[in-house]
Amino acid sequence: MKIALIAHDKKKNDMINFTIAYKDILIEHTLYATGTTGSKINEATNLSINLLQSGPLGGDQQIGALIAENELDLVLFFRDPLTAQPHEPDVSALMRLCDVYQIPLATNLASAELFIKSLERGDLDWRRIIDERESENK
């Protein structure tokens, strides 16, 4: 599975701790992350991560493009709902794309844990079926 990891500044420590806790599951998947978040995760876990731009510099839009191209299966986006974000329109667009393309989106630690446990059990395998069908139709 292809998983995007994103975290607002005040949630980066939560994301780092999450990736440390679930490293054994995440290591089996292809990971993408916005710049600063991905760099910090890599430093803490040594996980292989495809780094994109930082969120405010276009990383959220890059993640959105991957979603639109059916190149992502899951988005873990630890949002800070109490702090105004200068790139809020990009965040809203990313969330809308997840809804349009049926990409599971976790916006907090609790929902991310549910998704990661589901991934571990194989409950998200329906995404692989969609990916295979897309490949056959190209």
Give an overview in words.
This protein has 138 residues and is α/β, with parallel strands linked by helices. The chain has a single domain (6-105, 123-137), classed as 3-Layer(aba) Sandwich (Rossmann fold), CATH 3.40.50. It has helices at 12-21, 23-26, 35-45, 59-68, 88-100, 109-121, 126-137, and strands spanning 2-7, 30-33, 49-51, 74-78, 105-106. Strand 2, helix 3 (35-45) and strand 3 (49-51) form a beta-alpha-beta unit. Helix 4 (59-68) runs parallel beside helix 5 (88-100). The protein starts with a strand and ends with a helix.
Please, how many helices? 7
Spans where pLDDT lies below 50 across 5 or more residues:
none
CATH homology group: Methylglyoxal synthase-like domain
| Rg measurement, Å | 14 Å
Number of domains: 1
State mean pLDDT (0 to 100 scale). Answer: 91
Question: How many extended strands?
Answer: 5
Distance between the termini: 19 Å
